[in-house]
Specification:
Strand content: 25-35%
CATH architecture of the largest domain: 2-Layer Sandwich
Strand order of the largest sheet: 5-4-7-8-9
Number of helices: 8
CATH class of the largest domain: Alpha Beta
Structural class: alpha+beta
CATH topology of the largest domain: D-amino Acid Aminotransferase, Chain A, domain 1
Distance between the termini: 21 Å
Radius of gyration: 20 Å
Number of strands: 16
CATH superfamily of the largest domain: DNA ligase/mRNA capping enzyme
Helix content: 10-25%
Number of domains: 2
């Protein structure tokens, strides 16, 4: 299972995720998997690390939120932008949070070429695509890996800033207000209703308090993500068949008692590989929970009984 999660993590940061966030979180929690990112090749270092957020599924388990700003957690591709003397000098994918790939040529078409801050500042945010586009997160992430700049420019993409370091103003919301004045979409003022989200982000509004709380090696202590576990539909596993994909890889497929998820009737779902079947302890006739990953791909995520 660790090999599956390592591979899923690598492909996520490459821009070609094979598991939804809900599936990855479920398996990572079950197997105590907490590796963040992977080693990036042809990498460039972020000026300031891009840490991940501690995740909670129940607000009662999270820190008190009375001094936090609350924003939507956009589901796209995280990017850092480095401005020097007010000019955009470097844009990187998140990669492993320490290093990413240079995508400056692409991001120049999505973000302002200059800002009102003359010192060095790293602006972080998310490249997102409308959720009307099938598998919109993959669409956004995959677009950053395109070699053809002209094709990239045809993609329906938006950059939304969610932070800046060093801090521009004492308050987080005021910092984003400055970025908004400079021409950025900012997460505190962005209408996310037409874009994919996967929860909420809570962040200390006082930048001084945020900084004083410090961070672990993976997460800032002054911010966290509140995520909802995907609610699947229960059905019966009728059989398992094996199919050969275009790449020649043979993989198992679940045959299910047909169920309706959203606007689709589901009778088959991916099972990835034999280790996945063993790990979920699946047997013919058992009851399973099924979700549609990205509201497209049916997946079995657990055995119910």
């Amino acid at each position: 299972m660790r090999e599956l999660l390592d591979n899923a993590s690598m492909l996520y940061y490459e821009g070609y995720p094979i598991l939804s966030d809900e599936e990855f979180d479920l398996l990572a929690e079950k197997h105590n998997y907490n590796t963040v990112g992977y080693t990036v090749t042809d990498a460039v270092s972020h000026t300031f690390p891009m840490l991940s957020l501690q995740k909670y599924f129940d607000l009662a388990d999270a820190p008190s939120t009375s001094e936090y700003a609350k924003t939507p957690k956009l589901d796209g591709a995280a990017v850092s932008l480095l401005y020097v003397n007010g000019l955009l000098r470097l844009a990187l994918t998140r990669g492993d949070g320490k290093q990413g790939r240079d995508i400056t040529d692409k991001m120049r078409h999505l973000v302002p070429s200059s800002v009102g801050v003359t010192s060095v500042v790293q602006i972080t945010g998310e490249v997102v695509a409308p959720k009307s586009i099938p598998n919109s997160r993959n669409y956004a992430s995959g677009s950053l890996g395109l070699k053809d700049l002209k094709e990239f420019m045809t993609r329906d993409l938006t950059f939304v800033a969610y932070d800046a370091v060093p801090f521009i103003r004492p308050q987080y919301t005021d910092t984003l207000q400055c970025l908004y004045i400079d021409g950025f979409n900012v997460v505190t003022m962005f209408d996310a209703s037409n874009y994919p989200t996967d929860g909420l982000v809570y962040r200390m509004n006082s930048n001084e308090a945020f900084e004083s709380m410090g961070s672990t090696s993976h997460h800032p202590r002054g911010a966290f993500a509140l995520k909802e576990k995907a609610k699947g539909v229960e059905t019966t596993l009728l059989d398992v068949v094996w199919q050969t994909g275009k790449s020649g890889v043979v993989s198992p497929v679940a045959l299910l008692d047909p169920i309706k998820i959203g606007d689709a009737v589901i009778a088959r779902a991916t099972l990835h590989n034999i280790e996945y079947i063993r790990d979920l302890n699946l047997t013919i006739g058992c009851q399973v929970e099924v979700i549609r990953s990205g509201e497209i791909i049916p997946r079995v995520v657990r055995r119910i009984y």
